[in-house]
Specification:
Elements (H helix, E strand, L loop, with lengths): L6 E2 H8 L3 H9 L7 E2 L5 E3 L2 H14 L4 H8 L5 H32 L3 H11 L3 H16 L7 H7 L10 H14 L2 H19 L8 H14 L6
Antiparallel strand pairs: 1-3, 2-3
Helix pairs in contact: 3-4, 5-6, 5-9, 6-9, 7-10
C-alpha cells in the first residue's frame, strides 16, 4: 500500500470494524477527519486513519470523553496524562460503587426499612474526618470522666481506620459499626463495661471482677505447670 491510497468511509468501516455512522460522527467532530474528498464529494481517508480510529475506539471504550480524545489525537495532551487522570477518576468511581454495593448488601441481608436504608446510605458515604468524629463521640460517651490510665490504649484499639482502598467486607463492617455508634443501648452497654473495668482496677469493694482478670489469675499457674488449656 502506498501513502497515496485512499479509503472510502465504507472501506474504513470494514477494515476497522467501526460502524460507518460512528466514523461519520467522529469525522464531523474533527477526531478522525478525512484526508480529502473524491470527485463526487465523498470523504476519503488515508492509511493513518486506520491507526487513529483504533486509538479513538480504544479510548472511547475506556470511557474517555470525545473532547479529550480529540485533544489526544491533536497532540495537545499526551496519552499518559489522559490515562493517569482517568485511572484516578475510575479509582474514585470504583470506591463509590463498592460503598453502594456494601450498603445494598447490608440492606438486603437485614430487610431494612426505608428510613434505615437511608441511614445506612448516609453512614457509608461519610468522609474520613466524619467517620472519626462519629467514633470519637461514641468513645467519649463510653470513657468520658473515667481516669484509669489504661483507657487511652483501649481507645486507640477501639478506633478503627478504614483503609484508603477498602474491600467489600471492610466497608460492610464499617457500615455496621457506624450504625452501632448511634444505638443508645449499645452506647449504654459500652459505658457500663468501662465503668465496671475502672471499678475493678481501682479495687472497689463488691465489684464483680472482669473476665480478663479472673482468667489471667486463675489459669496462669495451671499454664505454667504445663496443664493443657483444653
Amino acid at each position: 500500500m502506498d501513502d497515496g491510497e485512499r479509503y472510502s468511509i465504507g472501506d474504513l468501516a470494514r477494515r476497522t470494524g467501526v460502524p460507518v455512522k460512528t466514523i461519520r460522527f467522529w469525522s464531523d467532530r474533527g477526531v478522525v477527519p478525512p484526508t480529502d474528498r473524491g470527485p463526487t464529494g465523498h470523504r476519503r481517508y488515508g492509511p493513518e486513519a486506520v491507526t487513529r480510529l483504533d486509538l479513538v475506539r480504544t479510548l472511547r471504550e475506556l470511557g474517555v470523553d470525545l473532547p479529550t480524545v480529540r485533544r489526544v489525537v491533536a497532540r495537545e495532551i499526551t496519552l499518559p496524562e489522559v490515562a493517569s487522570a482517568h485511572a484516578d477518576a475510575l479509582t474514585a468511581q470504583i470506591r463509590l460503587l463498592r460503598s453502594r454495593r456494601a450498603v445494598l448488601t447490608v440492606i438486603a441481608r437485614r430487610g431494612a426499612a426505608p428510613d434505615r436504608a437511608d441511614l445506612l446510605h448516609r453512614l457509608a458515604g461519610l468522609a474520613a474526618r466524619e467517620r472519626r468524629r462519629l467514633v470519637d463521640d461514641l468513645l467519649d460517651a463510653a470513657f468520658g470522666g473515667l481516669t484509669d490510665p489504661g483507657f487511652a490504649g483501649i481507645r486507640r484499639s477501639l478506633t478503627p481506620e478504614l483503609p484508603e482502598d477498602p474491600d467489600d467486607g471492610q466497608i460492610e463492617a464499617w457500615v455496621e459499626l457506624a450504625e452501632l455508634t448511634l444505638d443508645p443501648s449499645f452506647r449504654a452497654g459500652l459505658r457500663r463495661l468501662a465503668e465496671q473495668h475502672a471499678a475493678d482496677r481501682s479495687g472497689a469493694e463488691g465489684v464483680r471482677r472482669d473476665v480478663v482478670a479472673v482468667v489471667r489469675e486463675e489459669t496462669a499457674p495451671a499454664l505454667a505447670a504445663g496443664v493443657d488449656p483444653a
